């Protein structure tokens, strides 16, 4: 699709940076909290830092088309490294910092990275560990110098030293760098991002300047984002959403990107910054809600009663007030009192007092969780997207936000539903190709630019909003022909703070069953209040009282599911609580915490068989990966529980 930016010279991220340095030079561009103090760089200072890094990379011999791997937590200097690589005509390839060495080796080898820029010693060590399996790495740079003194620096440099060399050698490389920047067009590669790999090896998604800039412009205009907005950059740099928010939209609008000090201080830093534009996957909102509920359980009786009373008012009228819909004067008065006593302090505690636009995506969010935040007056919306779309496929306009849809097509995006119910799209953000994988490119994107999402959905006739049912490959039929959509049930289960993760089975079966992961924080707090002693996650998960509590949650979900005529067959008949948390290091989740159903089904086949065989318990042994990379085995006897399901006449009554 031949759309272009409003000004032909703004056809690369470096060009946008130059514009911001010129027009917004004294305004804050990036902030970082270090040693408890916020450091800030203006757009002019950012442009100077990026150019110094680019000149330093030139002095190391970086060539057009080289791939530069970037590994670490969210830090301004690592974002600058991406733009510096682009200036040199190279391609930045951010990697997940929590990836184990084997995962890192695959990506480094597949993209053929010549240069690797690491955040700290831990990342350097992982690269060195796999260097004998990866061909092509010539230089390693590191941002944090701590612990690096005794390493062999023959092909290793501190990032600050590279920038210093760039400044010293600018007369030699200025002209060449300017020439490379001037060569960049809409069709040059902007970034390469690897998919999460739910169905196999991650694929390298090649995104052009056109993809990133057009998508950033359209999405920013959709929500009226501007230079006065603040965003918190805390999600993995290897994830497409972070790249769009912290680089693409930041460069287009000129808003400020704020990097927290660490994952441990993220919530404190969130409250200090008070972002106006905030994005989080459902797991973050689920975790925050869990913490709120834990605190309320520990609160005094009067405080708990006040919270429950005003939250009932919020659930009833909060979303309508947020959307500007008619609400009675008495309800507005009650909501105002609730805002003074409960909602305002709670939003301040969460760091959401200034949020003007909030988004969640990546996985479907439970409707109860979604409605909770909107009832507080937080403008939380859902978007639907994927890496191959440069994030945005659909968005929810203000005043048309609902928990059961993902909105209307984003500006510039076309969406259609295929004959099998699969969702297809094409847009300016549609990816160029999968790197070194023409077969997958051809099977995903056709000659007319339509991309198969792999998701099943439909458009509502009246509202025109898109509803996503589930992954197309996961939606199926039960043995009696009823619809099976596991994610629908899993999201309802995860609304409960005690349930961290759920995996539902039932395709081709006579009934649905489930694996449950308890939330150690929430259930541990509950156990402490109820004087239940435990020594490990495994022991707590199999405690009879915990089983009874989770059984009650499952039966509540069954009542809710039974009220939906289309999906009432998805009620969970039997379940077990897993003896370990599902973990990306064990291959059970992706790095973005998406469930790898096929791997789970293979790994825990004995547990699934037990669920369907009528047994009440099963002994199992499972291989696990410890934090230091060692492997081990844990043994457990798991209790299998039956959950009450609603009979046909009860379903009819509910309907």
Structure description:
The chain has 655 residues and is α/β, with parallel strands linked by helices. It contains 22 helices and 28 strands. The protein folds into three domains: 13-207 and 234-249, ANL, N-terminal domain (Rossmann fold, 3-Layer(aba) Sandwich), CATH 3.40.50; 282-353 and 355-471, Rossmann fold (3-Layer(aba) Sandwich); 476-654, GMP Synthetase, Chain A, domain 3 (2-Layer Sandwich), CATH 3.30.300. 40% of the residues lie in helices and 22% in strands. The strands form seven sheets. The protein has a five-stranded parallel beta sheet with strand order 4-3-5-6-7, sandwiched between helices. Strands 12-13-14-15-16 form a five-stranded mixed beta sheet. The chain has a five-stranded mixed beta sheet with strand order 24-25-26-28-27, sandwiched between helices. It is globular. The two termini are 46 Å apart.
Brief summary:
The chain has 22 helices and 28 strands. With 655 residues, the protein is of the alpha/beta class.
Label the CATH architecture of the largest domain.
3-Layer(aba) Sandwich
Q: Assess the beta-strand content as a share of residues.
A: 15-25%
* Percent in helix: 40-55%
* Assigned CATH class of the largest domain: Alpha Beta
End-to-end CA span: 46 Å
State Rg: 25 Å
CATH topology category name of the largest domain:
Rossmann fold
CATH homologous superfamily label of the largest domain: ANL, N-terminal domain
Name the structural class: alpha/beta
Q: What's the number of structural domains?
A: 3
Main sheet makeup: 5 strands, parallel
Low-pLDDT runs of 5+ residues are: 1-6, 648-655
* Strand neighbour order, sheet with most strands: 4-3-5-6-7
**Total number of beta strands:** 28
Oligomer: single chain
Mean pLDDT: 92
